[in-house]
Amino acid sequence: MWEYTGKVLDHFRNPRNVGLIENPDGIGEVGSLACGDALKLTFKLGPDGRIADVKFQTFGCASAIASSSALTEMVKGRTLEEAAKITNQDIAEFLGGLPEQKMHCSVMGREALEAAIDNYRGGQGGKRVLAGKVVCNCFGVTEEEILRVVRENQLSTVEQVTHYTKAGGGCGKCKGDIQALLTRVAAEQLAAEQAAHARSPARKMTNLERIRLIEETLERNVRPALRQDGGDIQLVDVEGPRVRVALRGMCAGCQVSEFTLRDVVQSKLREFVCEDIVVEESP
Amino acid sequence: MSRVIYLDNNATTMAAPEVVEAMRPFWSERYGNPSSMHAFGGQVHRDVESARARVAELLGADPGEIVFTSCGSESDNTAIRGAAEAFGRRVNVITSRVEHPAVLGPCQDLAEHGVTVHHIPVDAAGQLDLVRLGEALREGPAVVSVMWVNNETGVIFPMEEIAAMVHAAGGLLHTDAVQAAGKITIDLQRVPVDLLSLSGHKLHAPKGVGVLYIRRGTRIKPLLLGGHQEENRRAGTENVPYIVGLGRACEMARAHLDDLPRLAAMRDRLEQGLLATCPDSSVNGDRHQRVSTTLNISFEYIEGEAILYSLSDVGICASSGSACSSGSLEPSHVLRAMGVPFTAVHGSIRFSLSRYTTDEEIDYTLAALPPIVKRLRAMSPFVPK
């Protein structure tokens, strides 16, 4: 049995706002019978522009029903701008958390809400249209959706992506593609982080922080390239701006090691750590 | 927890009180090692052999053909890997698309090591396609592993016919009979399978003990090495209390075979009652070739896990073939292999009875389930107006 919170069970046993609003202002439908869960969300706005009434119909497991019910409670009385800011994490948090394998239920809620708001704003007929490249054919999940969920939930493994979007949970053939998307997001985030670091000289780094950042930069930005050629690098010492390293494996004694040190190691360290760094090879 | 109506006996069963009682002395009183050279252990050896004889009797086998294992999965793994290895030359493996994971797993592993594995399909009723089996058998020497009774639908495969086909083609036949023991009469004199797996906890013995039947003369490489126990067929000191319990459970299962018509009547009453009170419901599996204790029924437009949680709230235990209740995202491979539409697979519920099931429990379930189905359907976007 899943470890559902009391709140999940309460919303499953006593779901709020079940039904279908006649002549709704917005309607959103996601999922399908084949996928194993589906949600139809309808809402009506009040004269003040706030969601006055909202109802759902859900085909799915206990947590899918609970997530839908929670969503209706969360959006009632809000403006569409406010409602549009609700993330799948907000839904999960409202319920006191969901088992990770069930996070896709909260994503389904957020998607239905978006589809309904889109529909109100004159978008599609309320049915979510698959836009862009489809990654998972079994469950019809697109690259765009995966990238968004990965970013919003800070996901780092393929298994997590499956828990959150179902992608990869069928035949499994798209797992390589999902990994590639994860790698892409991780690279983006790292670059953004490092750029932020480099651009904030406001506070002087302590020596420890500086050594740690040098190690991190070697690990992320230098080592992978060296490993491809069968080499490796080791940090030997840091003394002021002078960073002493030792080249290992195929890199040791390599004729172009001087180039490697200056144009790869030094330039990366200057880019991500500090502009006055000088790299020396340890004998 | 208050009242429990246990209709999930294909998942596991209650250990019979008589079984627990039979096991009791073997913890702290008769704890000797059956292999020891003293009377204290020697007596325990006789108890193990007496249990072996009781298991053999349930199967119509010779006690020397019974090997105790730790569970049905160990028996399946030993049988499939052991037989394939013992074959020595290039051998094909033939199994079905509706097997238990304990069979599909080792078959998959062999396939990854270059063995050709055929998965024989089933028809809409869950019956094995014997024509396809015949075709696969013509492709060369084969180790065949097909279940006797399906765990999800209760469908019984024609094992006598299958055995004749496999042997005519020079193959070796293993059957996972975990769901068959105690639910149909098994006579291995009449149905000459070569290897058969059995699990204790499916027939009112405790979890943690199983049997591999190895027909005399069948060559098989053991999985566990390093001990002379079980005539060198399975190393490891015998799990004496559980073996004794399994012996008692098999003895009782044999005595209770007469009980099956009563269970079938209860199951049929549940089936007919639910079909009558819940529109858009249908039974999965061959109703004419099915064990007396299993009912697999689909309720359209709603999802199995939601049904199970609602049943659990009123104390009823059952299972589902839906994706969510399986812990994966894929619904039952058995129902999918039968071509049951996704809609019906997601809303499938399995009820499995035992000799401890009462008429009153069936009444209770018949009263409890229709309102649950109705409530969930009122929430579903798919119910036609």
List key phrases describing it:
heterodimer, A: alpha+beta, Sufe protein. Chain: A, Arc Repressor Mutant, subunit A, GMP Synthetase, Chain A, domain 3, three-stranded mixed β-sheet, 10 helices, 8 strands, elongated, B: 385 residues, alpha/beta, Aspartate Aminotransferase, domain 1, four-stranded antiparallel β-sheet, 42% helix, globular
CATH class of the largest domain in chain A: Alpha Beta
Q: State the major sheet of chain A.
A: 3 strands, antiparallel
CATH architecture tag of the largest domain in chain B: 3-Layer(aba) Sandwich
Distance between the amino and carboxyl termini of chain A: 60 Å
Span from first to last CA of chain B?
A: 39 Å
The main pleated sheet of chain B reads as: 7 strands, mixed
Overall spatial form of chain B:
globular
Radius of gyration of chain B: 21 Å
Compute the average pLDDT of chain A. Answer: 88
